[in-house]
Sequence to fold (623 residues):
Amino acid sequence: MVKQVSQEKINQLQRTAKKLSRQIIEMTTKAGSGHPSSSLSMIDILMVLYFGEIMHYRPDEPDWPDRDRFILSKGHGVPGLYAVMAEAGYFDPNLLMSLREIGSPLEGHPNMRMLPGLEASTGSLGQGLSIGLGHALAARVDKSDYRVYVMIGDGEADEGQIWEAAMSASKFKANNLIAILDYNKFQQTGAVRDVMPALEPLVEKWISFGWAVYEINGHDYREIFDALHSTRKAEDRPQIIIAHTLKGHGLSPFEKDDVNRKHGKPLNEEEKQIALEELENYDYGKTISSVELRPTR
Amino acid sequence: MNIGKKIGLSYGPPTRNAFGEALREIGHQNENLVVLDGDVGNSTRTNYFRDDFPDRFFNVGIAESNMIGVASGMWAAGKDVLAASFACFLMCNAYDQIRMSIAFPRANVKLVGSHSGISIGEDGPSQMGIEDLALASALPNFTVIFPADAPSAKSATLAMFEIDGPVYLRTMRPEVPIIYQDDFDFQIGKANQLRDGSDVTLIACGLMVAASLEAAQVLHEEGIEARVLDMHTIKLLDIDAVEHAARRTGAIVTAEEHVLHGGLGAAVAQAVTNRFPVPMGFVGIDNTYAESGEPEELLEKYGLMPEDIVEKAHLAINKKLALRGV
Fold:
């Protein structure tokens, strides 16, 4: 029986998600670089992980040994994680606007030595799932019951190391390891289906590697909650949530870019104003219905 | 192999075996230690640890990149971690993972690369780690160690766990000459002077330490006195020992079973240039891959024998004398 979440809770999370989306857009525009669309595509999932009572963590004790871990393997999406961490209380939200400035702990990609609460230094793609597996196996050795969540990108799954990690996690029956694949359909130079058509069939790939697979709409809070609650049940295998998302969260300045949804590009001032206005009257239902759920080759 | 036999050195176990024994010993003392293997544990000798501690040993399959990521995660989760494979597969296959997940976050992870150099012999160049010292040395935060024999490999294995940070330890496949007594003083970052002399200094690591001792004896018979330093620590180099050798002997020859670029010779040359420039000579693998063959045949063909060190010593001494106008 999957736990029911109140509509009130979902409304509250969506309001906060909109605030953090504004911060993502504002901090990357101010920095003049960064990956806002890659941050926005996963923001709803991060909201549920951090504020939906899924992950256990202590912002005032970031190294608490029994904490659940979140590893952002797609490190370029870190503005989204910074916004979430500030909201959670890891650091002063005023720091967000120092993104990418020299001396700021908010580097362009996650640097675990600069900011307590970051679990891994990432940015060279393909590596976070292995790191997550390391945490998961350490938990087993130490007889701890924390869980490890790893966010990977769709383009990132081009990397061979993802599949090395997938195989070995399956071998070790790492049931405390939960991968989330942010399937926003675009990578740096184009659509995933063009750059790497053989990424599909994705669900079948993970099943064949011995993982339990959940496929969801990554902007639908009920589906996100249901999947994350399901992964908390005992399984004898690692689990992955394949989350279909919109790179840029459906905001028009990103949607207008048919090549890569402004991958690695901040919005200019004019585009920023448009996006912020759209966020004011944001319609989650429209976003959810725009998500492409079953891509074909 | 016969290197060192002329001067009475006897052969002992491979350094990889000594490492494996020491690792097992540490496993008994340190319950927090976990060991990762890329399915070559019976070659690297991490299987000695596996035999005693199967629950703390993880064979991730033939997947070095993944192994390094797992190592980093286990470190971040609080474990003491060692990961091992062949030197070439570890350093070359997983280099970016070592950069991002070990060096960059200063992970307290110990890496061990076995089957270094060309003295692995018949398996050929695809299995020979000849670039690994340069690759490891290029990584910020890394300490790089290459012991010469079984006793020092054991000491180095024990000592590297005293360092809070990433270490690369290089081991060898074949049986090699014993240089040290079991209870000798080994310190990471401190060269061991094995022979004193005032005409030239031979600075070597690994198997080339025995070759240098043999070369020193040949030089002695010619009336040339060579100082010999075992520079087992390539990064965290004993710069003071290098400077002292340069000042006292005025000529230096380095010898290593590694490419000439970026290894021991390059590190020593940098130290010499910084502290006290003197003529130098370099014995190593000169911009080439080797081939299959018997270890000693290969060492001869690729210029890594005692006579090669003697020849480079003559050239360095001649340069020194020419500079002095002798």
